[in-house]
Amino acid sequence: MAVYTEVTDEELSAFIAQYDVGQLLSYKGIAEGVENSNFLVHTEKAYFILTLYEKRVNRDDLPFFLNLMQHLAAKGLSCPTPVVMKTGATLGELAGRPAAMVTFLEGMWVKRPKPVHCSGLGGGLAALHVAGADFAMTRRNSLSVASWRPLFSQSAARADEVKPGLRATIEQALDQLEADWPQDLPGGVIHADLFPDNVFFLGDRLSGLIDFYFACTDSFAYDLVICLNAWCFEPDQSFNVTKAQALLDAYQKVRPLEPAEIAALPVLARGAALRFLLTRLHDWLSVPEGALVTPKDPLEYLKKLQFHQDVDTVSAYGLAL
Amino acid sequence: MAVYTEVTDEELSAFIAQYDVGQLLSYKGIAEGVENSNFLVHTEKAYFILTLYEKRVNRDDLPFFLNLMQHLAAKGLSCPTPVVMKTGATLGELAGRPAAMVTFLEGMWVKRPKPVHCSGLGGGLAALHVAGADFAMTRRNSLSVASWRPLFSQSAARADEVKPGLRATIEQALDQLEADWPQDLPGGVIHADLFPDNVFFLGDRLSGLIDFYFACTDSFAYDLVICLNAWCFEPDQSFNVTKAQALLDAYQKVRPLEPAEIAALPVLARGAALRFLLTRLHDWLSVPEGALVTPKDPLEYLKKLQFHQDVDTVSAYGLAL
């Protein structure tokens, strides 16, 4: 649920008047997203999503995110496009918060992705990587390997409360990943959070990608294994190789992987699993007693980490050797 | 915030297929309403509001509410209109809950109503009363005078925790109101909950009335004083007679009050104040420790009750004697 900031109609009308979109006709707070306040806004011209950026988003990162969406949309990628104010700016202020309005994207996210959706995702992800190749700005991935040990230090002492032995398991994985983490793989802009709720479909057809607020500069193959973890495991934690193959094949039709990228997939997949295990573990241990929001289960990502630790060759992912 | 029930895209697509509205293009959970789950749905034909009725709404009342909205819309009142399924029904089922889809109404509610909005409200309320006059169904007002003592009995023992002396004040008011409550005033369908968040405007012009889920059969003047209490007091609890006059004048331009209704306004206004004082007191004392939702302050309505207890003549409301 996400409307953290209440906005009055006068404030909103004044904000909307900065754009060339006609008069405000209606707006509704949307129960989506967990970081920001979102409103679906209808003006005389069209429907838009208005986002008020709350504290967890770093204000200095907003130009990267907004310019990236503009760049990708201009390259033909289907994603929300920031609407430009009469002044030429895309970032404004509303109710004391940074705020931006983006175009409304039709489509729905798929709660139970099938192989056909993994295929759509693969094509969309590769298109994103290709479209972002000449984007001039960069943003360090603040949730990559260098950040994992400091992040874990905040949870280490209590990790075994969640599962006995978890602390040692994570420390071992950290040691290995810090030693083996691949450098110099092909990279550029990655989405870094392309879970099913950020990918819209109309029927079986991908209609667009949303929520670029974790986007950063990192290796493309890392983005791909984040998707592999988020889309290709079943609710019982079994790995669905048909979905993995659909994802990887569709990706490679648009952007073929280099041999070094393919070789790195298992270690990258372990890293991607550890990254979400660590953030979920941190959130799990930080939730106050009696909170209404149930944090996501960190152990789901422990099982994914262990799956990839057992992978010998990329044939486990459905790739030919 | 109101999305209590999660709906999958498959379930929703199947539900939408019962209507002649084209394919589903998108849907968003809306952070509005506190009783039901609401979604803004876009199909190939239009935008709609889809409501899933949660436990607090009595399923047997739904035909009254839906038929009423249809009746009022057919009479030209601007309100959400239930969309009719191919079977001719307006009430369906989705995710195990009764569900209905209504037309989307443009407009926004006004956080700080001005006299011009009270005037718009008065005209709209009278139009509602006139349009509902020949509606065939009836629904008893389950929150009228007969219900107040049983409702208060659940809070009486703890009332003085909220304010010392509150129990005695309420008991006195109850005794008086039960003795003096007017019978046989002109009546019919009333909205019974026409607070600012249920009245939409586009600029200064009323664009429609929403949320008919407290509608019932009762005296028209009682509906009017519910509005008087909800719209004509300032945040500091002072009574704004200009707003009251605007409300009453605009109402009477469409439906002139009879002398008996005018004479009854002070006692009805005390009753309307007590009704919301009692439900808010009940909610205030029922909220679990640490809940995220802040209940509305019951004492706001104690002050309104006391204002009306001091009213000698209806000139206090801006009416000529």
From TrEMBL, chains A, B:
Keyword ATP-binding among record annotations: yes
Stated name of the protein: Homoserine kinase
Keyword set includes Kinase: yes
Keywords, in A-Z order: Amino-acid biosynthesis, ATP-binding, Kinase, Nucleotide-binding, Threonine biosynthesis, Transferase
Enzymatic reactions: L-homoserine + ATP = O-phospho-L-homoserine + ADP + H(+)
Family note: Belongs to the pseudomonas-type ThrB family.
Organism: Roseibium aestuarii
Listed GO MF terms: homoserine kinase activity
Pathway this chain belongs to: Amino-acid biosynthesis; L-threonine biosynthesis; L-threonine from L-aspartate: step 4/5
UniProt xrefs under PANTHER family: AMINOGLYCOSIDE PHOSPHOTRANSFERASE DOMAIN-CONTAINING PROTEIN, AMINOGLYCOSIDE PHOSPHOTRANSFERASE DOMAIN-CONTAINING PROTEIN-RELATED
Domain Aminoglycoside phosphotransferase: 27-257
EC number(s) reported in the record: 2.7.1.39
